[in-house]
Specification:
alpha+beta; 8-stranded mixed sheet; single chain; 5-stranded mixed sheet; 16 helices; RNA-binding; about 40% helix; elongated
Amino acid sequence: MKTIISPVKGTRDFYPEALALRQWLYGELARVSRAFGYQEYDGPFLEPMALYAAKSGEELVREQSFCFNDRGGDEITLRPELTPSLARMVAARQRQLPLPIRWWSFGPFWRYERPQKGRTREFFQWNIDLLGVESPEADAELAAVAATFLRNVGLKSSQVYLQVNNRRLLEAELTRLGIAPELRGMVFRLIDRRDKMRASEWEAYAADQGLNTTSIRGISQLLENKDLWTKSEELQAFFQAVKALGLEEYVEYDPTIVRGLDYYTGTVFEARDRDGEFRAVLGGGRYDNLVGDVGGDRLPGVGFAMGDVVIQLVLEKFGCLPSLRAAPAQVLVTTFGQGEVGASLDLGRRLREVGLLVEWYPTPDRLPKQLKYADQAGIRFAVICGPDESARGSVSLKDLAKREQIEVKVEVLAEEVRRRLLEATNA
RNA sequence: GUGGCUGUAGCUCAAUUGGCAGAGCACUGGACUGUGGAUCCAGUCGUUGCGGGUUCAAGCCCCGUCAGCCACCCCA
């Protein structure tokens, strides 16, 4: 057995069927993004490492990015996320861009982590952001974009949903419990981990982090209070807006959601399947200081990101994956014999000239083999030109789906195929 | 970075206490010499991930190594 060089760990080969699925996903999220008035953009795939050093979260850039020095010695990172690039792009043209900014993007990202279910080292991500509006209704719009996408692709609110929380509310509550602001980062991580451990383990872990029993008990109570959101005017307005947008079935308050990235300042949310089988499908929230942090004026923003891997797992689980195949050619021009090669090439050219997608069978194999190939490839029409047709100045046109065959003059072949394809599409 | 599981034909997987490496699919040819999805017949397909060890005998047991998957960490 010959050894094939294996792909880089954590990358995926996109065979035509897989690429067709990715393109379908792209189409769906483009549709939602545009429906809400967002414009497509993109940043570079390579960024200076310094762009992430500020705010992305220590571990993300230090341990989980692909970093290297270029030939000039500069520290370069393969982008692990898009939001810092967005902040920089906006900061650079802050005076020219009319507000609000509604932008979306879909492209590749890289994170140096151990691959596992729902996580690869190279993945595609949908990013969508609204900048220049600081209101709960803006937060609600992003949640609505996410929920509308989920609904559009066929996922029911009984299957997936958005969990929402607010960091300001959480911070106020922690202050009320007498927990010092310096400890917030640690406490957020603690809260994030709550549902991964048993209560006793979690309490022991919390104590280990230096929290006293009173604080731990107070935090526990916060996390069990499903009505805590009513204390936040922001969340009240948020949920009211979500209701007006008609998506309240998909959106719920969840006091345990905090999100890992350091730059979130207000409302945060993530979407997951209700069984909790998979990791989060998407995640995002409000970040009010990011543009200022990269050298611009303060500009509030809200947005989320969705990776292509988990959403595919969820779609598969709930039977929402479309049955796709790579788009086949419309016509196969067969090659009857060595003597007919020139005629076949000529026929292919004629068909392409009227805009048809034409594949040429490159060897004079037995006709059954050529037709079987057309059938398996999903090609609708086969053109056959042997000595009999040739003598009459015509060709045989076979409709693989209808199992019909007619003989037409070479001059009218292209028009005939086009007419029949149109008919087939309308039927 | 830490831990667990799995590596057998192109693919999906069998192989009893260690005892002749198999099946389905796919592929190729034929039945059918210029007409595709079915059926039947025949055929090709192996360094059992790699290296060592134990044994009369290893796909199976032991050690090492590589790869993949899963979990932790973190996160889309």
